[in-house]
Amino acid sequence: MAPGIPGRPFQPPGQAAAPAGAVGGGGFNAPGQPGYVAGGFRQDDAARTFEAVRSDRREFNADGRTYYREPGRIIVRDRDSYLIRHDENERFRDLDPRGYRFERQGTDFYSTIDRPGGEQVVTVTDDDGRLLRRYLRYRDGRELVLIDNGYAGPLRPIYEDVVVLPPPDIRIPRDRYIVDYAQADEGEIYEALTAPPVVAVDRRYTLDQIRYSPDLRARMRSVDINTITFDTGSFTVTPDQASKLSVIAAAMNRSIRANPREVFLIEGFTDAVGSAIDNLSLSDRRAQSVATVLTQQFQVPPENLTTQGYGEQYLKVNTQGPSRENRRVVVQRITPLLQQGQDQGGQAAPPRPR
């Protein structure tokens, strides 16, 4: 089975929740266990090279699964499949290390950074480091919820959060369904990043369901950023490649100005060289690196971005050898999947200061 595609049926909201301690990783990150870290991740983890990531990686076994803890990441091996989740606060901490605040409130953890114009981005995670909510707080106290990962009830383990759906009936040209970034202009990219699902979506889903369900993501158009590739074993976006993100950044900013609730998923991929664990970690860090560049250099609001790595699952070039074309990122608009049918009344957002 390919890494990251667990052979588990989707458990709809309303069915029995996972046993206590099983959220996101069984008893692995539970008080008293060897791998436990309060809040899921250490706040001072900062690996800048992949060699450092590897050297700090530790293996744990719990509830019949294998867990790998490394700086800012936890990888779960469930039977013959792998999934990765990351520290939801790491990107924000790196963006504003002096202004970043992190505190425990009851059983949850709240991180806050300040944004231009007096806004605050608040991220709420549980003791396992799982994202519960992310919202924007305006100066007048109003709050705009961007991601609500727990609306359906208690979080399930990530390896049970896969939604299986029939393939979508795609009736648009392939070059509009998967946009070639190198060949497209800003208008074509903006169209892809504001388009509705290619088939109807009848309910909303959690971010975890979207991240771990290829059938769900297939319902949205995507932009293949084939101008950004990475050196082997690297998750650094070089300055010459960073400048190539200007067009998609302009399309994102235009979209967010029109709808401050927009959320874009940046997906990272690798070639097939190396281990599944290394590739999953690299791809997740590559996606985060691109998100950071979009904010630092092009002012794309960080709260409107989220990331996920998929390792070597979806090879663009069918080769088991080295391939820069496979070491890439893809961007999708996931707003309709997150917010379909959501009551948004009474939460009108004021315009962003620009």
Write a concise synopsis of the structure shown.
The chain has helices spanning 50-56, 90-95, 174-177, 186-194, 207-211, 214-217, 239-242, 246-258, 276-298, 335-339, and strands spanning 58-62, 65-70, 73-78, 81-86, 101-105, 108-114, 120-125, 131-137, 143-148, 178-180, 222-225, 264-268, 305-309, 329-333.
Describe the protein's topology.
Layout: H1 50-56, E1 58-62, E2 65-70, E3 73-78, E4 81-86, H2 90-95, E5 101-105, E6 108-114, E7 120-125, E8 131-137, E9 143-148, H3 174-177, E10 178-180, H4 186-194, H5 207-211, H6 214-217, E11 222-225, H7 239-242, H8 246-258, E12 264-268, H9 276-298, E13 305-309, E14 329-333, H10 335-339
Parallel strand pairs: 10-11, 12-13
Antiparallel strand pairs: 1-2, 2-3, 3-4, 5-6, 6-7, 7-8, 8-9, 11-14, 12-14
Question: Which key terms come to mind for this protein?
Answer:
354 residues, alpha+beta, 60s Ribosomal Protein L30, Chain: A, five-stranded antiparallel beta sheet, five-stranded mixed beta sheet, disordered N terminus, disordered C terminus
Structure, described:
The chain has 354 residues and is α+β, with helices and mostly antiparallel strands. The chain has a single domain (50-339), classed as 60s Ribosomal Protein L30, Chain: A. It has helices at residues 50-56, 90-95, 174-177, 186-194, 207-211, 214-217, 239-242, 246-258, 276-298, 335-339, and strands at residues 58-62, 65-70, 73-78, 81-86, 101-105, 108-114, 120-125, 131-137, 143-148, 178-180, 222-225, 264-268, 305-309, 329-333. It has a five-stranded antiparallel β-sheet with strand order 5-6-7-8-9, with no helix packed on it. The longest helix is centred in the last third of the chain and has 23 residues, at 276-298. It is globular, with a radius of gyration of 19 Å. The termini are far apart. The model is unreliable at 1-25 and 343-354 (pLDDT under 50).
